Amino acid sequence: MADIKELNERIQRESAFIDMLTMEIGKVIIGQKYMVERLLIGLLSNGHILLEGVPGLAKTLAIKSLSAAIQAKFHRIQFTPDLLPADVIGTMVFNQKSGEFTVRKGPIFANFILADEINRAPAKVQSALLEAMQERQITIGDSTFKLEEPFLVLATQNPIEQEGTYPLPEAQVDRFMLKIKIDYPNREEERLIMRQNIVTSQNPIKAVTAPSDILKARALLQEVYMDEKIERYILDIVFATRTPKDYKLDKLTNLINYGASPRASISLALASKSFAFVKRRGYVIPEDVRAVCHDVLRHRIAVTYEAEAENITSENIIDDILNTVEVP
Predict the structure, then answer these.
(1) Considering only CA atoms, which of 50, 18, 24 is closest in space to residue 276?
(2) Which of 12, 32, 50, 108 is the most exposed place for a label (fewest CB within 10 A)?
(3) Can you tell me the distance from the alpha carbon of 294 to that of 322, in angstroms, rounded to the nearest whole number?
(4) Helix axes 286-297, 314-324, angle to 10 degrees
(5) Are 38 and 49 in contact (CB under 8 A)?
(6) How do residues 195-211 score in pLDDT, each as one tens digit?
(7) Pairing between strand 302-303 and 256-258?
(8) What is the pLDDT of residues 48-75, one digit of tens each?
(9) Which of the 8 DSSP states describes residue 169?
């Protein structure tokens, strides 16, 4: 217990930059606390984020502000049907002076990548992101380049317009640690947004931390205490998506096509630790797991046609699982 108390105090000290980051981003992002919190969770967990929301909800502004507050390099890639893999990762260019091919690096070489409307580009371009996301490296010709850390891909997709889009394959969706659904701001938040955007002077974002602080926080994150009971709770949730009968969830058997992969267990554990860290705690509680569960699992559970016919989504299934699986 003394060790946990000491760890808790240390994490409270070391996580002070989280409040500074949130305050700095809050200068330009009104509302959307949930989205900003999840961005920090993805950043601390070294995971990537898939954002789903209608245009105009400050998705680009949020990640741009985050990179400015961390003094990190930010690139935005607008995905279009005519985009080529070379436009994302870079290519070999012939140098006439030297008579040799040289590497020209693409926009993927940054700390924060906004892959805007990722489902607008064909599969070969989407797959160009895979090596970068999973291996944190890029291969151009015969050369392999390590990407700078921290490295975070934030991909967005528009849930309304599906014409001329290429849905992400399941294997690629699974590589995103979190899938976040964001909604419109409330009336009061929108009034503040409107007021802020009609004035001429805008508050510039100041750098309040550095990429090295994020890397230190990631190392400290490994020390966040997770009890065996919490580990079992995470496994129960994930296994309930695969074998619902074992958890007295027989009604879900015909609704789930296939359940969450082992990546879900890893991501749920990491995201729970990060959530505890963001809340400036040195230990994980069941509420942390429940808080991030929808974001980790909503894109990893495939529902059957029967579920679709009954308008049952993966979110409804996660609700049922959380309401049934015993909380430690």
Answers:
(1) 18
(2) 12
(3) 10
(4) 160
(5) yes
(6) 877 876 667 888 888 88
(7) antiparallel
(8) 999 888 777 777 888 888 888 888 888 9
(9) P
Q: Span 224-324: which CATH code?
A: 1.10.8.80
Report d(CA 299, CA 171) in Å as an integer.
11
∠154-72-172 over CA atoms, to 5°? Answer: 20
Q: Which two tokens stand for residue 184?
A: 């419109």
E-only strand ranges, 147-287: 152-157, 178-181, 256-258
Query: Where in the chain are the domains?
Result: 20-213, 224-324
Crossing angle for the helix pair 2-14 and 211-221, to the nearest 10 degrees:
160
204 preceded by a cis bond (ω within 30 of 0): no
Residue from 300, 301, 293 nearest 322 by CA: 293
Return all residues near 25 (Cβ < 8 A) that are at least 6 apart: 36, 62, 65, 66, 69, 205
Q: Which architecture, in CATH terms, is 20-213?
A: 3-Layer(aba) Sandwich (3.40)
